[in-house]
Design goal:
Blueprint (H helix, E strand, L loop, with lengths): L2 H13 L2 H8 L3 H15 L4 E3 L4 E3 L1 H25 L7 E7 L5 H14 L3 E7 L2 H9 L5 E5 L7 E17 L12 H4 L3 E5 L2 H10 L8 E6 L2 H11 L2 E5 L11 E5 L5 E9 L6 H18 L2
Parallel strand pairs: 3-4, 3-5, 7-8, 7-9
Antiparallel strand pairs: 1-2, 5-11, 6-9, 6-10, 6-11
Pfam families: HTH_1, LysR_substrate
InterPro entries: HTH-type_LysR_regulators (IPR050950), LysR_HTH_N (IPR000847), LysR_subst-bd (IPR005119), WH-like_DNA-bd_sf (IPR036388), WH_DNA-bd_sf (IPR036390)
Protein name: Transcription regulator hth lysr
């Protein structure tokens, strides 16, 4: 497969028509149709369902779109690293992480880096640990910020000097908002929203004493913002980390910590044996400095 052909394929997937993609790419429609037919023959798979008004992707086509996007992104990332000026810090650094107040350490390092070297560009990807580690393993991210518990066997890491607290997000008019903390018994029978991350579920199962079936989990989430809207609209209770959603006096939501208290640490990670660009190596040093500085406070 040629990169050019993959880019053609992605354009068709986006435009949902051969004619629209051909116009966008400034090539003839017969040429583009021939390229796609040859791609399907090369792969031995049908990639498109050709309708009267638009083209849709088959299951194989959707898989190829996902992989093609990853391939193109990795090529662009590699080209950016190779073009970086050796005499000046420049280039792109890709960081993935979950929603956590601990990301402020990374934000401070980014701020320092761009103040000292304005040509540096940063790209942030938000996702749970499974999303982030998948992109780390594929080389699409340089660094990740992972919330415990996480399997760290494939990564080198810095343990960040911060802790996140597990608790329950609820409406301020909820009866549980009057409590200082929330026990497993308090949630019994309540509609609960929980992270869909398996390791997190295991951690919460430990808090529940292995009796996770006692919870009425009605919805799962991977990032908290949309889940917080369900809490606000439907009086659900979201098991989550503190500091992600605003719960001050002006908010309609409140956060109460779990009892027994459940805290988790964070790690700034990268693939083992990774060869860093000059810019990435420099940024890693900044994160280490910021972590030491906060530890000493």
């Amino acid at each position: 497969m040629e990169l050019r052909v993959l880019q053609y394929f992605l354009t068709i997937a986006r435009e949902q028509s051969i004619s629209g993609a051909a116009e966008f790419l400034h090539i003839t429609q017969p040429t583009l149709s021939r390229q796609m037919k040859e791609l399907e023959e090369e792969l031995g798979k049908q990639l498109f369902i050709r309708g009267n008004r638009k083209i849709t992707l088959t299951d194989d086509g959707m898989l190829l779109r996902k992989r093609a996007e990853e391939i193109i992104q990795l090529v662009d990332k590699t080209e950016s690293e190779m073009r970086a000026d050796d005499t000046e810090f420049s280039g792109d650094i890709y960081i993935g992480g979950g929603e956590s107040e601990g990301m402020r350490i990374i934000a401070r390092a980014i701020s320092r880096a761009q103040t000292e070297h304005p040509l540096l560009k940063f790209h942030l990807f938000s996702g749970n640990a499974e999303d982030v580690t998948d992109r780390l393993d594929k080389g699409l991210l340089d660094f990740g910020v992972l919330v415990e518990p996480t399997n760290m066997t494939k990564y080198d890491f810095i343990k960040l000097p911060t802790k996140d607290i597990w608790g329950v997000l609820m409406r301020k008019d909820s009866s549980l908002a009057e409590f200082e903390s929330i026990t497993p018994k308090d949630l019994r029978g309540k509609p609960v929203i929980c992270s869909n991350q398996m390791l997190v579920k295991n951690e919460l199962a430990g808090w529940l004493g292995g009796n996770e079936r006692s919870l009425n989990i009605v919805t799962t989430y991977n990032l908290l913002y949309n889940a917080s809207l369900l809490v606000e609209e439907n009086s659900h209770y979201a098991l989550c980390l503190d500091g992600i959603i605003h719960t001050g006096e002006s908010s309609d939501l409140r956060f109460r910590p779990l009892e027994p208290r459940l805290e988790v640490g964070l790690h700034f990670v990268w693939k083992k044996y990774q060869v860093f660009s000059k810019a990435s190596d420099y940024f890693l040093g900044l994160v280490q400095e910021e972590a030491r500085s906060q530890s000493n406070q």
